[in-house]
């Protein structure tokens, strides 16, 4: 996985990208691949993240990959699927007990969107500012929060500083991009 700008600057095609990555990102992989035989052309994917909207409705809701997929590198998939599954089970029970799907399902939707957004912000911040992300990890005020966020604690982190820092930095970045 390499940033788009870097791809266009350093590589003419996906084969180049693999060569460049082995040379500059992971020489160890180059060593392991030295006797490997290429059996096909390399292929690139611009974006594999997706989300389903709406993901709750009358008598149904989506969890895990059926709802949203963020990023394979950060490995949130199993953790988020389980967290959403647990929360969805509660919402379903409340819907049956209260004979009303909207209140519990919309609460599940909002809770899920909140946590997924915090994870999406962290991932985007990392790819925009990889060096600064490493620097933030040295900050004792943020280190523990960032470790927990990387571990999947994105849904119940009210009052944490790191998510706000990431969100503000992304909004500022987007503003600058829009301005030219
Ligand atoms: C190559 C690869 C590596 C990954 N590595 C990681 C990792 O290291 N860490 C991590 O957290 N995540 C990883 N993920 C992502 C993770 O596997 C998914 O995010 C996670 O499994 C999603 O769980 P899920 O329950 O939503 O979906 P799934 O695990 O896909 O479960 C859906 C299940 O529904 C079944 N099913 C589908 N249609 C029907 C039907 N009509 N009737 C009955 N059953 C049906 C399927 O057979 C499947 O068993 C990886 C994914 C891939 C593809």
TrEMBL record:
SUPFAM superfamilies: FAD/NAD(P)-binding domain. InterPro entries: FAD/NAD-bd_sf (IPR036188), Flavin-dep_Halogenase_NPB (IPR050816). Transmembrane segments: none annotated. It comes from the Bacteria. This is FAD-binding domain-containing protein.
